[in-house]
């Protein structure tokens, strides 16, 4: 009886050890994945900082003014006049496209008036 109990306990220990090893391996795998994601996030942040620095360098007023002067003949830029600035309600309304049924109906009428019927 003692031998069967020993064999059973050894089998249980082996199963638990195997399960523990599997859990440890899975945790290490997830930890490695998290480390890779952290590294990628840090790289993206560094890239964003570099792009923001480039953007601020490219948008310096003196640089833009010099570019405008150099390409004045090509761009033909003019200062903004005060009367060009308007409120949104002063802008012309955007025409509303006809509904699909109306467009199809009007095309059939136009075709019929030209002698063609679809």
UniProtKB/TrEMBL annotation:
Residue ranges the record marks as coiled coil: 27-54
Compositionally biased region (Polar residues): 108-118
Region of interest called Disordered, as start-end residue ranges on this chain: 90-118
Record keywords, A-Z: Coiled coil
Superkingdom of the source species: Bacteria
Protein name: Cell division protein FtsL
């Amino acid at each position: 009886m003692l031998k069967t109990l020993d064999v059973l306990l050894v089998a249980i220990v082996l199963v638990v050890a195997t399960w523990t090893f599997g859990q440890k391996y899975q945790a290490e795998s997830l930890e490695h994945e998290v480390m890779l994601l952290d590294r990628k996030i840090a790289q993206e942040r560094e890239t964003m900082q570099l792009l923001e620095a480039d953007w601020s360098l490219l948008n310096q007023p003196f640089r833009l003014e010099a570019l405008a002067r150099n390409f004045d003949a090509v761009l033909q830029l003019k200062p903004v006049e005060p009367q060009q600035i308007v409120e949104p309600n002063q802008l012309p309304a955007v025409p509303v496209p006809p509904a699909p049924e109306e467009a199809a109906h009007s095309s059939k009428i136009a075709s019929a008036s030209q002698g063609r019927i679809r």
